[in-house]
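Q: Convert this sequence to C-alpha cells.
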Amino acid sequence: MKGLKDKVVIITGAASGIGKATALRFAQEGANIVVADFADGAATVAEVQANGVRAIYVQVNVTDPDSVKGMVDKTIEAFGKVDVLINNAGITKDAMMKKMTKESWDAVINVNLTGVFNCTSAVLPQMLEQKSGVVLTTSSVVGIYGNLGQTNYAATKWGVIGMTKSWAKEMAKNGLRFNCVAPGFIATEMVKKIPEQVLQEKILIKVPAGRLGEPEEIAAAFAFLASDDAKFINGTVLSVDGACTL
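A:
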C-alpha cells in the first residue's frame, strides 16, 4: 500500500481479534504501531516489533476522556505525531429488546459510540495542526441492516457511520479523511466458540460466500483506506461481508 511506511497508527482494541490482525498488517506495511487496549497488549507488541517497526502498548479505557488523552499524549511522546487512528474497541451485551436492561444499553453505548467520539476528539488537535490524518472506525453490517437481540450494538454501529460522514464533511478541507469498515461474520475467537451446528444453520446460511471472513481481510480493508491509494475516499462505508447483505 502506498504511503503507510513510517506512519504512526493508533489501534484501539488491538490486543486480540480484528485489532491485532490490523496492527500486524500495518506493521507489515512499515507503519509504527500503538497497541491500545484495556487488556494486556504486550504479546501483540512483540509480534508487531518482529516486523522491524516500532511499537508500544498503552492501556486505555475508551470511555474515560482522561485515559484517552493519556493514550494520545504517550503516542506523541513516543513518536511525535499521529497519522492514523483506528477506532476498533467494542463490546456486545445482547438481549431481545423486551429483556434489554438500561445497564446493557449504557455499557455498549459508552464503549462503542462514546468511545469513538472520545478517541477521535483526542487526536483531532494534532491532525488539524499537521493538516493530515486518517480516522477509520469499525462499524458492522448489523449497523446497516439491524439484527435480532442487538438493539444497543446496532445503534452504536449505525451511529459511528453518522459521525464518520459528518466529520468527513466538516474536515475534508483540512486534509483529514474519515471512513468506516463494516465487517460481516468474521472468524474471531468469539465466533469460533459458536457450536458448529449453530454456525452452519444460523450464520453461514446467510453468507453467499459460504464461509466466515478472516480478521486479516478486515485488516486489509483498513490498510487500503489508510493508504494513499484511497486518498480521495472520504465519508464512506466499506462492507467486507462475503455478500451477506445482498
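Residues 8-238 form a domain with the Rossmann fold fold (CATH 3.40.50.720).
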